[in-house]
């Protein structure tokens, strides 16, 4: 049985926020959503229902994109501070995400990155050289 990506609270950040790291990278978007939901459920004060739904969708899209375009997720973590919820997804491909025309036939996608950019109020891409990249996305809390 594989270990599921259910992100336990693993500490407190330097700003006093909660941090959660998945013990094993998710292999499916559903695992990322479950981890995001578990993380959000432990936050105090609790985020609004809409913020939680946005966190689930953002996590799902970032993980789906990493799996489809980079071949895997190498790490998933969450952090919350007084102003925002943060999602970090690492993958093994150093190439930055590219916006493209969405395929309305459903064959090639093109919807995920625009969803990420619309939901998050800040998206940062940190290169890891040949090791890939980390995408950090923040939602207003």
Radius of gyration: 14 Å
* Beta-strand content estimate: 25-35%
Oligomer: single chain
| Fraction of residues in helix | 25-40%
Q: Please, how many helices?
A: 3
**What are the low-pLDDT stretches, counting only 5+ consecutive residues below 50?**
none
Q: Tell me, what's the shape?
A: globular
Strand order of the largest sheet: 1-2-3-4-6-5
Characterize the biggest β-sheet: 6 strands, antiparallel
Mean pLDDT: 86
- Structural class determined from secondary elements: alpha+beta
Please count the beta strands (DSSP E, at least 2 residues each): 6
N-to-C order of helices and strands:
EEHHEEHEE
- The N- to C-terminal Cα distance equals 35 Å
Structure, briefly:
This protein is an alpha+beta fold. 30% of the residues lie in helices and 26% in strands.
Structure report:
It is a single chain. By secondary structure, the protein is of the alpha+beta class. 30% of the residues lie in helices and 26% in strands. It is built from three helices and six strands, in the order E-E-H-H-E-E-H-E-E. The chain has a six-stranded antiparallel beta sheet with strand order 1-2-3-4-6-5, covered by helices on one side. A hairpin with a 5-residue loop joins strand 1 and strand 2. Helix 1 runs antiparallel to helix 2 and helix 2 runs antiparallel to helix 3. The N and C termini lie far apart (35 Å). The mean pLDDT is 86.
């Amino acid at each position: 049985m594989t270990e599921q990506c259910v992100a336990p609270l693993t500490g407190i950040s330097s700003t006093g926020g909660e941090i959660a790291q998945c013990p094993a990278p998710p292999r499916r978007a559903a695992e990322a959503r479950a981890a995001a939901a578990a993380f959000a459920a432990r936050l105090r004060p609790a985020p609004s229902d809409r913020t939680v739904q946005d966190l689930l969708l953002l996590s799902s899209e970032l993980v789906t994109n990493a799996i489809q375009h980079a071949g895997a997720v190498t790490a998933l973590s969450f952090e919350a501070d007084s102003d925002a919820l943060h999602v970090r997804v690492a993958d093994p491909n150093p190439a930055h995400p590219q916006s493209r025309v969405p395929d309305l036939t459903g064959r090639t996608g093109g919807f995920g990155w625009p969803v990420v950019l619309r939901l998050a109020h800040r998206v940062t891409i940190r290169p890891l050289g040949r090791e890939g990249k980390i995408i950090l996305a923040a939602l207003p809390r």
